[in-house]
Amino acid sequence: MKKIVYFSMFISACLFAGMVSAQDTSKISIPGDNKIRNIDGVAAVVNTGYVTRKEIDDRIATLQKQGTKLSDSTSLRKEVLERLIIEKIQLQNAEQAGIRVTNKELDKIINDLASKNKLTYTEFKSKVVATGVTFDRYKEVLRDDIIMSRYREQEIGDKIKVTDAEIDNFIAERTRALGATAPRSAPAAKGGPEEIDVAQIFVPADPSAGAGAQAEAKKRAEQILRDAKGGGDFLQLGAMAASENPKIKFQDLGYRTPDRLPQLFYEAIRNTGGGQLASGVVKSPAGYHVLKVMDRRALVAGQQPQSAEASSSTPNTPQSILITQTMARHILLRNRSGLTDQDAERRLAGYRDQVRAKTADFGELAKKYSEDGSAANGGNLGWMGPGDLVPEFEQAMNRLQIGEVSNPVKTEFGWHLIQVLERREAQLTVEKQKEFARATIRERKLQQAYQDWLREIRDTATVKILNIEDAATGTPR
Questions:
Q1: Per residue of the chain (477 residues), what is the pLDDT tens digit?
Q2: What's the pTM value of the predicted model, to 2 decimals?
Q3: DSSP H or E run through 72
Q4: Residue 234 burial (C-beta neighbours within 10 Å; 0-12, 13-18, 19+)
């Protein structure tokens, strides 16, 4: 991801700047009785601090500028307030822990950001101001963001451990998923006894969560299935989905006879060959399942069926395996105030049409219009392997033929136009596999630990919710 978003590091910080508003500067006394509700402008008291209604208004205004799909006003204000409360708690706790970012250190960080984007400090400052944020405000928000990041790393990052056994198991699963295991077993004779190795990506859906949550889970599972059918690595798709939602799981069930598979699964893969996907998503009371048959093999007379546990724990010596790498280039129009999604999509569609009509060169357009560090190289991102790019970008890129230009693609960094230049098969050495495995496993654990940690610090804080329904400009209560 870092390879395409050096410039977006600055962009993300700029966007974040709009998302955290300045607090009211008026002095506020906080009595312990209900008279606190009469304090104009305060939405919530957080330990010894507070969150104002103006902060909520400004955060919502920024989300609207970014074209974010928002819920109804009442629930949106509650969601935004809760996020601001969490941020406030982190900053308060970090201060108590003695975490600081000096002015000298902050200037060095900004200089590094500017240097990575091939800008001088003055040019970088001008680009920040052009987004509609004062440079002092940008520095203030960047400082808070760094403090919260360091506090989170101190509290949970240093406690995440990845064992060698976890790495070996991850590599074994990935080796199987990438087809680098031994040749497929001999298939069973038609109608003969067999064992089936099935893997799944499971998207949970709580029946009590309502129709909306069910529909979202189904939509996510169907998207994973489409990506897998488009050539996406099944294990990598599961890993990416799990990074977005830790409740999503990848699981290899191992070799099982049909009677030991869930009936729903067997019905879905009854006529599916080894290495192939089930034709549709499978619905169960627990959620939605995307299934892939890893292998089918004959069950030899007198042979005991292999348990799932035994199958998954069978030693699988890591080996150099082949992965597909892609060389691509892109044009990025970053998220910013004044550029709507519709405008960005329309502009990129125009560039796409010019390239397809051969009236313009993709590389020259990238040099002129792309808003990231790759612009100087004609948008060229170099050789990229699975997991190197954000999911939306990688999935769109993987669907392209060599030389083909994509339709506009939206990611968290903005809108992209993508062209694939070349593909190759490359060896992923044992050491590279271990590095990748360790980083991926750590990220999964970190995501889960982070969510648990946020709940813990929220539960232990003293928070009093006041009036949040009215905007700051509304009638005081």
A1: 333 333 343 334 343 333 333 333 333 333 443 444 445 588 899 999 999 988 888 888 777 765 555 666 777 888 889 889 999 999 999 999 999 999 999 998 888 878 766 778 888 888 888 877 788 988 888 898 889 888 988 888 778 888 887 887 777 766 665 554 434 455 555 556 788 888 889 888 876 667 778 888 899 999 999 988 887 778 778 777 877 777 788 777 777 888 788 888 888 898 888 888 999 999 887 789 999 988 888 765 545 444 444 444 333 444 555 667 899 999 999 887 778 888 889 999 999 999 998 899 999 999 999 988 888 889 998 888 776 777 788 888 988 999 999 999 998 888 999 999 998 877 666 777 777 778 777 777 777 788 888 889 999 999 999 877 766 654 433
A2: 0.46
A3: none
A4: buried
In which residue ranges of the chain is CATH 3.10.50.40 found? 182-315, 322-428
- The verdict on domain 322-428 having CATH code 3.40.640.10 is no
Q: Which residue has the tokens 């509609």?
A: 132
Where do you find CATH 1.10.4030.10 in the chain? Answer: 6-158
String of DSSP letters for 326-342: EEEEEEEEE-BTTB-HH
Q: Are 461 and 82 in contact (CB under 8 A)?
A: no
Cα–Cα distance, 177 to 201 (Å, whole number): 12
Query: Rounded to whole angstroms, how far apart are CA atoms 2 and 335?
Result: 17
Quickly list DSSP for 358-373.
TSS-HHHHHHHH--SG
CATH node for 182-315: 3.10.50.40
**Which CATH code for domain 6-158?**
1.10.4030.10
User: Per DSSP, what are the bridge partners of residue 198?
Assistant: 293
